[in-house]
Specification:
The chain is mainly alpha-helical. Helices cover 68% and strands 5% of the residues. Helix 8 packs parallel to helix 11 and helix 10 crosses helix 11.
Length: 389
């Protein structure tokens, strides 16, 4: 009897250790995720604000020269050429365009340069010389400098100047690419899945096709980039860096994923549904259209959304088809050169400009937010519409 009690205590202790290890693993994962988000958010928060400088100018045809004159008038102590050049560097190189948009006003607000922006947001004066630091403090003392919400981060395309660079082109490009691969992949994947599950004969050929689909879902994404480079660019001569090429490349990536998700959903439907419909005289096509397809829609949508989440985070296949180019304009159609959010992050992370560091973190945070939203939608759809058999 004592040996049985001893064995029971050992089993209970083993179960307790397993629960503790499991809880510790979950706590470690949650802590790691929290550290990741806190780190990224702390670095990205500055990108959602920008610094502006007030200047007094009059309406003119040459706003670039008017801004230079206003700066020299505001800081008359800048006399030598190096000092004057340093003075011009406290405002953005595109401040003349902002001044033109405010032509009816005498007092205008223009974007500060990246080095001034970093100083006021993070107290980072390492890139400022002595004169620039003195001028910046003088502007702050006289309330001629302010922080505003940086809507340009969401609406502007990429730029060589970090203070005006944005993810607008990346967001639009990602949306256009998503439209292309969904239009191509969704109907083909659903029809393929239904054919293999409900109509195809069970023989060696279908076994080979099923194995091939599973292998395609596990192939490294860069292989699809090489395939897209060969087929779409070298053979079909489609426009390089365009969203249509990016979408067609990612179409090959998400196709097997949606097929597998759809087949798993169809398999989960009880055979009694099929048998009951067949007993009433329904054909295989009617069984599929009237019963199986409506019942499998939640699972199909969940699998499709998860496939979209994977595709939106891909970089390697798009680099292979030339979407690494610097894109300064937001694409207007499917054939315009474009970029996507992950590639934009890659380009900014490789930039030596200090101002792009917070832009990179902000773009990462935006991408993670989009992916979390897609996965959240998939979970909600599954919980709301999934039927328990």
């Amino acid at each position: 009897m004592s040996s049985k009690i001893k064995n029971l205590k050992k089993r209970n202790a083993a179960e307790l250790r397993f629960k503790l290890f499991g809880s510790a693993s979950i706590a470690f994962a949650v802590a790691f995720l929290a550290i990741l988000f806190v780190t990224i958010f702390s670095k990205a928060s500055g990108a959602f604000w920008r610094t502006e400088i007030a200047l007094e100018i009059s309406a003119t045809e040459d706003y670039r020269q008017a801004i230079k004159d206003a700066l020299r008038q505001r800081f008359p102590d800048a006399k030598t050429i190096p000092e004057i050049n340093s003075l011009y560097q406290i405002v953005s190189k595109v401040s003349n365009l902002e001044a033109k948009d405010q032509a009816e006003k005498q007092k205008i607000w223009v974007s500060a340069s990246s080095k001034i922006d970093l100083f006021f947001k993070h107290n980072n004066s390492s890139t400022l010389n002595e004169n620039q630091l003195r001028w910046a403090l003088d502007l702050k003392e006289k309330n001629e400098i302010r922080k505003v919400v940086n809507w340009k981060f969401f609406t502007f395309a990429d730029s060589r100047e970090p203070e005006i660079a944005g993810v607008g082109a990346g967001l639009v490009g990602s949306f256009l690419v998503m439209i292309i691969f969904l239009i191509l992949a969704f109907p083909i994947a659903v029809m393929c899945a239904f054919y293999l599950e409900e109509f195809a004969p069970k023989n060696r050929l279908t076994d080979i096709i099923e194995i091939s689909i599973n292998n395609l879902a596990a192939i490294p994404s860069i292989i699809y980039g090489l395939l897209g480079l060969t087929v779409y660019l070298q053979f079909m001569h489609l426009p390089r860096s365009s969203s249509i090429v990016g979408g067609m490349t990612l179409f090959m990536l998400v196709l097997p994923v949606i097929i597998i998700a759809t087949r798993n959903t169809i398999r989960a439907i009880p055979n009694t549904i099929r048998d009951g419909a067949a007993a009433l005289g329904a054909s295989k096509m009617q069984i599929m259209l009237h019963h199986l397809l409506p019942l499998s829609v939640p699972g199909i949508m969940t699998g499709t959304i998860l496939a979209v989440s994977r595709a939106l985070g891909e970089t390697a296949p798009l680099l292979m088809i030339g979407m690494i180019a610097f894109i300064a304009d937001i694409p207007q159609n499917f054939t315009d050169p474009t970029t996507v959010l992950p590639v934009q992050i890659y380009l900014w992370s490789d930039s030596p400009e200090t101002g792009f560091a917070e832009k990179t973190s902000a773009a990462i945070l935006l991408l993670l937010t989009l992916l979390i939203l897609f996965n959240l939608v998939a979970i909600i759809l599954r919980k709301k519409f999934e039927k328990k058999w």
